[in-house]
Amino acid sequence: MAKWNIDLGHSAVNFQVKHMMVSKVKGVFDTYSADIEAADLGDLTTANIDFTIDAASINTRSEDRDNHLKAADFFDTETYPTITFKSTNITKKLDNEFAITGDLTIKDVTKSVTFDTEFNGKGTNPWGQEVYGFEAETTINREEFGLTWNAALETGGVLVGKDIKITVELEVNPA
User: Fold this and answer.
1) What is the DSSP string of the chain?
2) The Lipid/polyisoprenoid-binding YceI-like domain covers which part of the protein (predicted)?
3) What is the pLDDT of residues 10-39, one digit of tens each?
């Protein structure tokens, strides 16, 4: 099994959630890392993936909102500084598509989730190093992970949607 590094300059961990039932708030986590081992990244079924996100690195382009998300109403980053994902099963769906199932832990709650993952291909960077690209997506119900804060709207509905769409874009290279 070979080890692989994330190229942080060409990768991203993104999310989006409904806001006031009419629009979407989008954000990123700026700090994350992974331990990735695989015999062949073109065939993810050989991989073991341990992903760690610094919860306090949340960035929605609004300092007040980010501070609220870091507080006890949401991530409580002082008590629970990381969000983790550990793969438990990876299956091939189509030639370039995989289902990566694993344990996602937010706060003190761990649930099995599956990321629909596309292998975008491989290439050689200008320094002669092989690089591989992937895009993975899942949707979780935030309330299942203890992120239950909300506010009712006068017009009906709620301020924050339950479903969080998570998209991970990775470029990796040999360690």
Assistant:
1) -EEEEE-GGG-EEEEEEEETTTEEEEEEES-EEEEEEES-TTSGGG-EEEEEEEGGGEE-S-HHHHHHHHSTTTT-TTT--EEEEEEEEEEEEETTEEEEEEEEEETTEEEEEEEEEEEEEEEE-TTS-EEEEEEEEEEEEGGGGT-----B-TTSSBSEEEEEEEEEEEEEEE-
2) 3-173
3) 999 999 998 877 789 999 999 999 999 998
For residue 59, the cross-strand partners are 28
Q: Scan for tokens 């060409």, then name that residue.
A: 10
Residues recorded for the chain: 175
- Are 139 and 164 in contact, with CB atoms under 8 Å apart? yes
Return the CA Rg of the chain.
Answer: 17
CA nearest neighbour of 162 among 14, 26, 145, 55: 145
* Alpha-carbon distances of 113 from 47, 86, 89, 173, rounded to whole Å: 17, 10, 10, 25
Of 135, 108, 109, nearest in space to 121 by CA: 135
Please give the pLDDT value at position 60. 95
Structure tokens at 93: 């769906």
Q: What does the pLDDT read at residue 69?
A: 94
